[in-house]
Amino acid sequence: MKDRFSLFEVRDLLGIRRNRLQEWLSLGYIKASVKRSDGRGFRNYFSKEDLYRILLFDKLRFLGVHRTAALALIKDIEVEELVKLRRKYYSFWPSPEGGWIGVAQEKPISLADDEIFRLVINLEAVKMEVDEKLE
Asked: Per residue in 56-93, pLDDT tens?
């Protein structure tokens, strides 16, 4: 199995328009962890873990989450959680001070009586979707 993917391969695998990926890359919303382009004519290469994060970023954007908020949420999820699936779910809820509080869980817990909403991400489903596309 491949261990690095070009921007074109990411586009084809995840079905995200190339110019959208390019914009996210130039604005710092996604990063190429294998090799970052040093300038014009050089390529970025992404890891499998990068693909998980890019897919999750795209899904959050589709749901209407602002790019800055989506980036903050994804940064909070450890790579270990995505790769090894030590815990299947990651839950976020608004912090009283602003921002989000995130925690990895075996299964999502129900809302507290004073909670209005909570964002729960099924990490296993994200991983499976990317892994199936790579087969």
From this structure: 999 999 988 889 888 888 887 776 667 777 778 888 88
State the CATH number of the domain containing residue 89: 1.10.1660.10
Question: In this predicted model, what pLDDT tens digit does every residue of 111-122 receive, in sequence order?
Answer: 878 878 888 888
Q: Judge whether 22 and 7 are in contact, CB under 8 Å.
A: yes
| CA pair distance 110, 103, nearest whole angstrom | 14
What pTM did the predictor assign? Answer: 0.83
Query: What is the Cα–Cα distance from 116 to 110, expressed in whole angstroms?
Result: 11
**How many C-beta neighbours within 10 Å does residue 91 have?**
18
Distance between CA atoms of 10 and 49, rounded to whole angstroms?
Answer: 12
Please give the C-alpha separations between residue 47 and each of 66, 93, 112, 123, in angstroms, as whole numbers.
24, 29, 38, 17
Q: Which domain holds residue 125?
A: 5-134
Burial of 26 (0-12, 13-18, 19+ CB in 10 A): exposed
Domain count, the chain: 1
